[in-house]
Write a structure and sequence with these properties.
It contains 23 helices and eleven strands. By secondary structure, it is of the alpha/beta class. Among the domains are: 117 residues, no CATH class; 178 residues, Rossmann fold, CATH 3.40.50. The strands form two sheets. It has a six-stranded mixed sheet with strand order 5-4-3-6-7-8, with helices on both faces. Strands 1, 2, 9, 10 and 11 form a five-stranded mixed sheet that branches. Helix 20 links the parallel strand 4 and strand 5. The longest helix is centred in the middle third of the chain and has 18 residues. The N terminus is likely disordered. The protein binds zinc ion (ZN). Zinc ion (ZN) binds next to strand 10. It is found in: Mitochondrion. One of its GO terms (biological process) is mitochondrial tRNA 5'-end processing. It catalyses: Endonucleolytic cleavage of RNA, removing 5'-extranucleotides from tRNA precursor. InterPro entries: MRPP3_PIN_dom, PRORP_C, TPR-like_helical_dom_sf.
Length: 536
């Protein structure tokens, strides 16, 4: 009768829930709604909340009759809970409270009744095994032999039942298998999941951590490379697992660390403070020298006084970048797709006639950089002030804009036309392809003015040219910081030295940030914190 009592009590709960309660409800709903995600949030989630609080947070197992009562109650109380999803929902509640024992008790009950858990239920159970495994230290003895066998049995059963597993089942199995000696099967499942979707950063991290912890460095490195190739940022846990493993062997420590640093340099990855701390401890324990440091505006390290390497692009690299961009990316990938061929031809003739420029300005991007809701008078005068900034330095400027800017106040537009080349595209055209075309066509000394990170364009260039593009962008991109009340504009100048991990003379400098973010920083910001590392 326990559950019935709970449901009776639930009726007394006020409909006015606190924000904490709402958060809990959302949490429960998120954790438990495999099939009916949206419908679970309202109504009746107060019942689920009570079930969670009064049962799942208090008990470690329930009797078969209690499980049966709960199961029947959920199905009869909730329109959207049915025989097909009730088990996953109950196991989701066990997962939400980290209750492996309850989950096992429920699966035991199901098996006693001759009920076979479905894919979603197994998925929930595997995730609970995984979080328990990590909570108990994430090593070979974290789960009992029976628990590990249960995971392997689930895997065997599903493989027997389905020839190809869907991506989410693959991921759930990866989370389960990394807790067992059969973790390498997870790598096969990762490949299988690619048939239907892109594996999550979580799945990559679980496998990478396991590979490094087991000393399978090649597998670990392949997974790291693959993570980056998928456009994802590897998580701290993956680096920490590698560091812990290589720290065991002082003789190869330097070589293994430099391999990691070179990886960060190649992909311009910025690590977190946690990983930086881990490296510092390992290095100092091995009598190498690792200090926290900052780099000043001129690029000099506060600790060792060495200057960071200046970003350089050779003429050959520039020629390669420029040719590749102008001849392949812009044409083959149809990036001018929102413009008519006539407009593109017209623009090319215009550039041939008026180039080279010292700076190419993305007019709308600049005008909107202090807010898109400003009146046209403000937008136009801001753009005119940016033109003035370059004009005062004797620079030849191209302003790219849209036809609708012809309606902007005459005085500002007159100033822009008089002091810059101005090309207006149709209102639907994209600005970046025009901007990059004009800038790259102008030559290596030409800069551009925009806040856009041009990520998709960089991506289309492929691995080899992407870094050259990013370096070119770093030293040639200007953007607006603000405009003062008297109309003076403050410009963000490019940083001329490398902002990623690199080695100068015999010293490595490794920038780091406070916490992990799945996407890299928006602009080329100078990292506040660096490690200054010298091997003895
Ligand atoms: Zn230094």
């Amino acid at each position: 009768m326990l559950c019935l009592n709970i449901f009776r009590q639930c009726k007394k709960i006020s409909p006015y829930l606190s924000s904490l309660q709402l958060q809990l409800i959302n949490h429960v709903a998120r954790k438990s709604s495999t099939y009916k995600r949206s419908q679970l949030s309202v109504p009746h989630t107060d019942h689920l909340l009570s079930v969670k609080k009064d049962l799942f947070e208090q008990r470690t197992e329930l009797s078969d009759s209690e499980w049966q009562e709960l199961r029947n109650n959920l199905i009869s109380k909730y329109k959207h809970i049915s025989y097909s999803n009730v088990d996953a929902i109950i196991l989701g509640l066990c997962g939400g409270t980290d209750q492996l024992s309850l989950a096992k008790s429920y699966v035991h009950y199901l098996r006693e009744c001759g009920l076979e858990p479905n894919l979603a239920s197994f998925g929930r159970l595997l995730r609970i095994y995984n979080s328990t495994y990590h909570k108990r230290g994430g090593n070979d003895t974290s789960l009992t032999p029976e628990e590990k066998q249960d995971i392997l049995d689930i895997y065997a059963k599903l493989r027997e039942r389905y020839e190809i597993l869907d991506a989410s089942t693959c991921e759930n199995l990866i989370y389960g298998l990394v807790c067992t000696k059969e973790w390498q099967t997870g790598v096969d499942l990762l490949n299988m999941s690619k048939l239907t979707s892109t594996p999550s950063i979580g799945a990559y991290t679980e496998l990478t951590v396991k590979a490094f912890a087991k000393g399978e460095l090649n597998i670990g490195w392949n997974l790291l490379e693959e993570t980056v190739a998928q456009g994802k940022e590897p998580k701290c846990e993956a680096y920490s697992a590698y560091l812990q493993y290589v720290a065991q062997e002082p003789l190869t420590l330097q070589c293994n660390l430099e391999k990691l640093f070179a990886f960060w340099e190649k992909y311009e990855l910025i690590i977190t403070a946690n990983v930086a701390k881990c490296i510092t401890e390992i290095l100092n324990n091995n009598l190498h020298n690792a200090e926290l440091s900052q780099i000043d505006a001129q690029g000099k390290c506060n600790q060792c006084k060495v200057h960071m390497r200046t970003v350089t692009i050779t003429d050959a690299e520039y020629a390669k970048l420029s040719n590749s961009f102008l001849n392949k990316v812009l044409i083959r990938n149809d990036v001018f797709q929102k413009s008519t061929p006539e407009e593109v031809e017209h623009f090319k003739r215009f550039v041939t006639k008026t180039a080279p420029y010292d700076c190419v300005i993305d007019g709308l991007n600049v005008a909107y950089s202090m807010g898109t809701k400003k009146p046209a008078k403000f937008l136009a005068s801001l753009l005119a002030n940016v033109v003035k900034h370059f004009k005062n330095q004797g620079k030849h400027v191209l302003v790219l804009g849209r036809k609708h800017m012809n309606n902007w106040p005459k005085d500002s537009m007159f100033y822009i036309r008089k002091n810059a080349s101005l090309f207006l595209t149709s209102n639907l055209s994209q600005d970046d392809p025009f901007l990059l075309y004009a800038t790259l066509k102008s030559g290596q000394s030409t800069d551009f003015f925009s806040r856009d990170m041009m990520r998709s364009h960089a991506f289309l260039l492929g691995n080899e040219l992407r870094n050259i593009f990013r370096h070119w962008q770093q030293v040639h991109q200007y953007s607006l910081i603000t405009q003062t009340d008297n109309g003076r504009i403050i410009v963000k100048e490019p940083t001329r030295y490398l902002l990623c991990t690199h080695k100068v003379q015999d010293t490595w400098h490794v920038p780091y940030k406070q916490s992990y973010s799945p996407n890299p920083a928006e602009l080329f910001e100078v990292p506040e914190s660096w490690l200054c590392i010298k091997f003895k």
